[in-house]
Write a structure and sequence with these properties.
The chain has 281 residues and is mainly β. Helices cover 0% and strands 63% of the residues. The strands form five sheets. It has a four-stranded antiparallel sheet, with no helix packed on it.
């Protein structure tokens, strides 16, 4: 798989396939006829079949890049749709594009999860900004400050036999930025239970106390059915992270580890302090 960025041409993606004994490659181009670009292509496998899900963007430039406005939200690379591609035995089975009704800024694929003949595509609207702390712009090893913002998440459910997208579901949040922590609190932890998608993420709320108002990130669990309906959404009040006035440890959405079918290890953090716990179903 290679990305071509030729002079005076829009970048596009080509996939090369060959059998174990073949000397010649078959070439499949994923270039869009309307010159929409593939901002990101996420590879995964269905048994031995190579699959790609790509974020398609209306952005028209010789190189796709993030271009935020001053609040870091509205002018990043805008996702205009999804392109689902599948190869079996080196042959193209489908190359199916589905456009969104409205474009979505800063959209990147987080994970693809299989569930009962379909796939959940989990995406996030996570923006990263880097700023040098050096006073001299020519310093060779200048320290960088990184900050992150999140506007929400998007889920798509697709048919693996045809590449058709059955539905989209968008979760709007407004999480304040964090610095130099790889966006530890602003992403989403996805997992599948049966045919349903389970999402864990943070939601900032204001708590009132004797010392004034404090902002705390509440860990939220949201369960979405295979038909796109929310069957459960609530804060995990007994989780021991974030939901209390003096609780500085919040859910770290960069770490999850499955221990067995119904038990997961998750982590909370506050700067250099960590707290581990079990999520059970």
């Amino acid at each position: 798989m290679s990305r071509l960025d030729l002079k005076k041409q829009l970048p596009y993606l080509e996939v090369y396939t060959a059998g174990l004994t073949d000397k010649a490659f078959e070439t499949t181009t994923l270039r869009q006829e309307d010159d929409f670009q593939l901002v990101q292509s996420y590879p995964y496998f269905i048994e031995n079949d190579l699959c790609l899900v790509s974020v398609v963007s209306i952005t028209g430039a010789s190189g796709v890049q993030i271009r935020p406005d001053y609040d870091g939200r509205s002018l990043g690379a805008r996702g205009s749709g999804l392109l689902l591609t599948r190869f079996s035995g080196g042959q193209l089975l489908y190359n199916e594009r589905t456009d969104f009704e409205n474009s979505v800024p800063n959209l990147m694929i987080k994970d693809v999860l299989a569930a009962d003949g379909g796939h959940y595509i989990v995406m996030e609207q996570l923006f990263e900004s880097a700023k040098s702390t050096a006073t001299n712009l020519t310093d060779a090893n200048a320290k960088m400050d990184y900050s992150y913002l999140n506007d929400g998440f998007m889920v798509a459910h697709c048919d693996i036999s045809s590449g058709a997208v059955n539905w989209f579901y968008q979760i709007q949040i407004d999480e304040p930025d964090t610095k130099n922590d790889n966006g530890a609190y602003l992403s989403v932890l996805p997992l599948v239970k049966g045919s349903m998608l389970v999402l864990l993420y943070n939601e900032t709320r204001v708590l009132n106390g004797k010392d004034g108002n404090r902002r705390r990130r509440f860990p939220i669990i949201e369960v979405i059915s295979a038909t796109g309906e929310t069957v459960r959404k609530e804060p995990l009040m007994a989780a021991g992270v974030g939901a209390e006035y003096f609780q500085n440890i919040e859910l770290d959405t960069s770490v999850i580890h499955q221990l067995d079918e119904n038990k997961y290890l998750v982590r909370g953090r506050s700067r250099a302090e960590y707290k581990y716990g079990y999520l059970t179903f």
